[in-house]
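Students often ask what a holo structure prediction actually looks like on paper. The answer is less mysterious than it sounds. You provide the chain, you provide the ligand, and the output is a string of discrete structure tokens encoding the 3D arrangement of the protein together with S-adenosylmethionine.
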Amino acid sequence: MLTRLVGYMNIVKTLCTNSTNRYLQGFASDSDIKNFIIENTEIVRKHNLTPEIHLRLFTPNCRFWHARPELWPFSDPFWAIYWPGGQALARYLLSNPGVSQGKRVLDLGCGCGASAIAAKFCGASHVVANDIDPVAAIATQLNCELNGLNPLPCDTENVISSEPEEYDLILLGDMFYEEALADSLHSWLNCCIQTHGTQVLIGDPGRAQFEGHGIRRLLRQEAQFELPKAVREENYGLTCSTVWRYLPEL
Ligand SMILES: C[S@@+](CC[C@H](N)C(=O)[O-])C[C@H]1O[C@@H](n2cnc3c(N)ncnc32)[C@H](O)[C@@H]1O
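The corresponding structure tokens follow.
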């Protein structure tokens, strides 16, 4: 079934409908989930924008890539993909270490955790990875270990719309993929900036939901990266991914 990443978003939807969290509920411990991730992903380093970072991801060599979707035991396996927005963000941080060095950083919607790992590599003083999917938090911790880092704090609370904590920098890789999520993120980011003067960096490959959103005209382009051939093929012909800085007039 999962012959390629093309069509992945649709597959993810099917997986959600069929099996929301049923496997997760049946698991005894985090270590069972860790073992499941280790057994059902492949360590990947090449063919993306950040060969410095090793990640456990879904590839055609993984059992579930070809399996019937209803056999996949979790809900959304977003964490098993290194999304083009996150790739650009992590590439930008690694190429510009001063951006995160010494900063308190939040990677919101961390997925596999690559942007958080990049910030830590660059000397961020404190990095928190946040994702509402508890499996993503475990995958991120595994990926930290894989890259020789102590596990980063991984938070699974939905912080959007709650009182913002004090961060110097918030990273958002490929987080503008749904209109409702984009709207709530936009308002919450304004709160973060107003309350703490937080800087915000967004990585996005030009998705329609992002390009059409009101936040788009309040962004300054920081960098743009051509996507490697393999990533282009896996993402419906997207060709590049951009890092934006959010500069609202509040
Ligand atoms: C498209 S993936 C991007 C993952 C990663 N940033 C990357 O670029 O590779 C979106 C991620 O956001 C997470 N997510 C969705 N809504 C969220 C929310 N309200 N708070 C935190 N994470 C959320 C999903 O679970 C998923 O892991």
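Confidence is low (pLDDT under 50) at residues 1-22.
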